[in-house]
Design a protein that fits this description.
Elements (H helix, E strand, L loop, with lengths): L8 E8 L2 E8 L4 H8 L18 E4 L2 E4 L12 E3 L12 H8 L9 H14 L5 H7 L11 H26 L1 H7 L4 H6 L1
Helix pairs in contact: 2-5
The protein binds FE2/S2 (inorganic) cluster (2 copies).
């Protein structure tokens, strides 16, 4: 990792939510500064600034980190994911949908960090138990909800995501049968 002398500036590049970006950083900048001020990605929040609240959680190479503790230069050449990257093609991520449906959001300050910790967990462990979920978000503090709805939302999202994967793989492996369902003659195609 490049170290900057006090007062020095440098340009660094890294991937954010799938896109390469180049930003100017100053000595002492943290990843959260670059995201919020340099790139205007204000989803990650600064609560405590000392690694205690988890409001600033983002993924660095797939692992949940407190972006208030990561020196900006440490992200050079690496991949960062923020809450802004969760929704795809105009559709909310299943975690976001589940948080809304389970009323797991009140003031919302902790939500981006919670979502990113949950996203990292489900990627690593697609079927987490409530205890595993509680452990995974133990570094994310919420002053409003009492955690119960948050854990239920994450549990539900994990269930939906594995159901979606199952449905997709069934659809892919039963291509001709779908033709039949739609009125086509799949047998003809199969036996020709
Ligand atoms: S702002 Fe980073 S842990 Fe609180
Ligand atoms: S919803 Fe307010 S801190 Fe969690």
């Amino acid at each position: 990792m490049k170290q900057l002398e006090p007062g020095a500036k440098a340009t660094m590049s890294f991937k954010v939510n799938g896109n390469m970006v180049e930003v100017e950083v100053s000595a002492g900048d943290r990843l959260i500064d670059v995201l919020r001020e340099g790139l205007r990605l204000t989803g990650a929040k600064e609560g405590c600034g000392i690694g205690e609240c988890g409001a600033c959680t983002v993924l660095l190479d797939g692992r949940a980190v407190n972006s208030c503790l990561v020196p900006a230069m440490q992200a050079e050449g690496r991949e960062v994911e923020t809450v802004e990257g969760l929704a795809k093609d105009g559709r909310l991520h299943p975690l976001q949908e589940a948080f809304i449906e389970h009323t797991a959001v009140q003031c919302g300050f902790c939500t981006p960090g919670m979502l990113m910790s949950a996203a990292a967990l489900i990627r690593e462990n697609p079927h987490p138990t409530r205890e595993e979920i509680a452990r995974a978000i133990s570094g994310n503090l919420c002053r409003c909800t009492g955690y119960h709805q948050i854990i239920s939302a994450i549990e539900d999202a994990a269930r939906r995501m594995s159901q979606e994967r199952f449905d997709r793989s069934r659809l892919e492996s039963s291509g001709p049968a779908v033709t039949e369902d739609l009125g086509g003659s799949s047998d003809e195609h199969r036996h020709k």
